[in-house]
Design a protein that fits this description.
Helix content of chain B: 40-55%
Distance between the termini of chain A: 41 Å
Helix content of chain A: under 10%
Radius of gyration of chain A: 23 Å
CATH superfamily of chain B: OmpA-like domain
Largest sheet of chain B: 4 strands, mixed
Strand content of chain A: over 45%
CATH architecture of chain B: 2-Layer Sandwich
Low-confidence stretches of chain B: 1-51, 53-60
Number of helices of chain A: 3
Number of helices of chain B: 5
Oligomer: heterodimer
CATH superfamily of the largest domain in chain A: TolB, C-terminal domain
Strand order of the largest sheet of chain A: 1-2-31-30-29-28
Number of domains of chain B: 1
CATH topology of chain B: 60s Ribosomal Protein L30, Chain: A
Strand content of chain B: 5-15%
Chain lengths: ~425, ~170
């Protein structure tokens, strides 16, 4: 398939310093980027400027989806801020399919209303209109929520602009590597450091309510698993047994973790840990490496990597234990299974003609589709809408993040974080 | 069989020699003993001593602490087995000593699976230590997988330096 490369550079400066988001979007020919207009929002405030350019955030979200091409502000023949002022003829001349207008109204010292309307230009019809209260602190999320509603109305796919991504970075320092666990908005903005250490940090995993992260830390030169609450920063050590403690993943009900324990003799097996009681139940028992457990969305099965047949392949076992069943047969290396939240696809790292790439298996047809094009791509993680995945790839020496739609048609690179960026995990949908 | 082994040994030393001359940027070498091992491997390059199998001639003072492994391999070569055995005898002789075996993998493939590969290497070393009379309580293992590379880079030279077990005396 021939591919068309569209390069877009967005450089934005925010309050706390310079946050830079750079993006390369590779769009397979045949995907039409739909023209849309996001008109700059009006501002009715007591004083000063609007706290955030809402239209710019919505525009950037829609552009980054790869499915829309917002027109430049300079091309707009009118800049209405309310539906009654929209002249459909002016927009039809420009060939845009849809128009977004809106305004920010200040209602108190740190209280605003953000309202927007989405119009179908050809049908001359309002598709959605919505008003949300906001503060300066929540205004970005409100803008992403508006983008989510617009995206869903126009594509039928639930938007994931108001979600987060956790990832690990490693930066070269004078005294060695500094590892950090970062949470940012899905567009790379609003980075927060959750934890940093001179010892490796690995395998972050979101709780289903997206309030906590489980991860592996090598503090004290041994591996242990922590669960950290994002809002408070409090963390608890839930597994620090002899040998390997690795690869945590929350059960769909949030009460258990599947994890890998190695023991003194280093035989890695899959276990299920009850978070409250800290009791661990072994669910695989084989002298091969069994690791990277991942729950099926219904919580009935754990899918995992095992090299019991020689090279690593994906197996599944009942969450209560039992006889594992092999799932992957295509290729010599399939590892790190991760389900789409709707259960229709299984993402994995797949060795494809000498390259480690991200592939998805359709759970009905059982066929494998390779989605990425790097040499050492790893750590696939689905967005909560099951439509897009994020993963890590290499750019010269450093890891960088990319996302790709599950059909492989739209792939893009996102540069966020400093140093070597790895192990991105997409959050569940956020409660507002 | 033995001929095959000798060829394999020679090739692996040739490879190590190549690594050393390649000058891979390593701003933070994990352990300075990497250098002395490279020196040893160039001794092997001239072929002297190949016939009698005596070309490794460590004296007790400079027992190396890093054991390297082939791709997808967890077996100790005969010379490495002897090095590890000497560590084992040392532990058996002096019960106050203890070691941490740090297993590592190269960067290819999935990170948690690589933790498993590093652990396999650490366990291969642990078994030899136990056979030589070290007690289990003297030994701990940890696998860092690909998380703590000794060399950066995405080529066989860097990978070969990263597939290793470091024997660290903690007491």
């Amino acid at each position: 398939m021939r591919k068309l490369l569209v390069k877009i550079c967005l450089i934005s400066t925010f309050l706390t310093g310079v946050a830079q988001a750079e993006l390369d979007i590779v769009i397979t020919e045949g995907i039409k980027r739909r023209p849309i207009a996001v008109v700059p929002f009006g501002w009715e405030g007591n004083s000063g400027n609007v706290p955030l350019d809402i239209a710019a955030v919505i525009s950037s979200d829609l552009t980054r989806s790869g499915r829309f091409a917002p027109i430049p502000e300079d091309d707009m023949l009118q800049k209405p801020t309310s539906g009654v002022d929209v002249d459909f003829d002016d927009w039809s001349i420009l060939g845009v399919e849809a128009v977004v207008v809106g305004r920010v109204v200040q209602t108190g010292d740190n209280a605003y209303n953000v309202q927007f309307q989405l119009f179908d230009v050809f049908g001359r019809d309002q598709l959605v209109g919505y008003r949300m209260p906001a503060s300066r602190g929540t205004m970005r999320r409100v803008a992403h929520r508006a983008a989510d509603m617009i995206y869903e109305k126009l594509t039928g796919i639930r938007g994931v602009f108001d979600t987060k991504v956790a990832y690990v970075t490693a930066e070269q320092r004078r005294d060695g590597l500094l590892y950090s666990l970062i949470v940012s908005d899905q567009d790379g903005e609003n980075e927060h450091k959750i934890m940093e250490s001179n010892d490796p940090i690995m395998s972050p995993a979101w709780s289903p309510d997206s309030r906590r992260l489980a991860y592996v830390s090598f503090e004290g030169n041994k591996s242990s698993i922590f669960i950290q609450t994002l809002r408070t920063g409090n963390r608890i050590q839930v597994s620090s047994r002899p040998g390997i403690n690795g690869a945590p993943a929350f059960s769909p009900d949030g009460r258990k973790l599947v994890l890998t324990l190695g023991g003194l003799d280093g035989n890695l097996d899959i276990h299920v840990l009850d978070i409250n009681s800290r009791k661990a139940q072994r669910i695989t028992s084989h002298r091969a490496i069994d690791t990277e457990g991942s729950w099926s969305p219904d919580g009935r099965f754990v899918y995992f990597t095992s090299d019991r047949a020689g090279g690593p392949q994906i197996y599944r076992v009942s969450a209560n234990g039992g006889t594992p069943e092999r799932i992957t047969f295509e290729g010599s290396y399939n590892a790190r299974p991760r389900f789409s939240p709707d259960g229709s696809k299984l993402a994995m790292v797949h060795l494809d003609r000498g390259n480690y790439r991200i592939a998805v298996m359709d759970m009905k047809r059982k066929d494998l589709l390779v989605l990425s094009a790097g040499r050492q791509d790893e750590s696939p993680s689905f967005a909560p809408n099951s439509d897009t995945l994020i993963y890590a790839t290499r750019q010269t020496r450093n890891g960088v993040l990319e996302s790709v739609t599950a059909d492989g048609l739209i792939r893009q690179r996102l540069t966020s974080g400093q140093g070597d960026v790895r192990e991105p995990v997409w959050s569940p949908f956020q409660r507002f | 069989m033995s001929q095959y082994k000798l060829i394999a040994l020679f090739l692996s030393f040739a490879l190590l020699g190549a690594c050393a001359s390649q000058d891979i940027p390593d701003p933070d070498p994990v352990d300075s003993t990497v250098g002395s091992e490279d020196g040893t491997s160039t001794d092997g390059m001239d072929g002297s001593g190949l016939g009698d199998g005596e070309f490794i001639d460590y004296d007790a003072g400079e027992l190396t602490n890093i054991i390297y492994f082939e791709f997808d391999s967890y077996e100790l070569g005969p010379e490495d087995a002897e090095i590890v055995a000497r560590h084992g005898r040392q532990l058996a002789d002096e019960s106050r000593l203890s070691v941490r075996l740090e297993g590592h993998a190269d960067e290819r493939g999935s990170r948690e699976y690589n933790i498993g590969l590093g652990e396999r290497r650490a366990q291969a070393v642990r078994r030899v230590l136990l056979i030589q009379g070290a007690s289990a309580s003297q030994i701990s293992t940890v696998s860092f997988g690909e998380e703590r590379p000794a060399a950066f880079g995405s080529d066989e030279g860097a990978w070969a330096q990263n597939r290793r077990v470091e024997v660290k005396y903690t007491n």
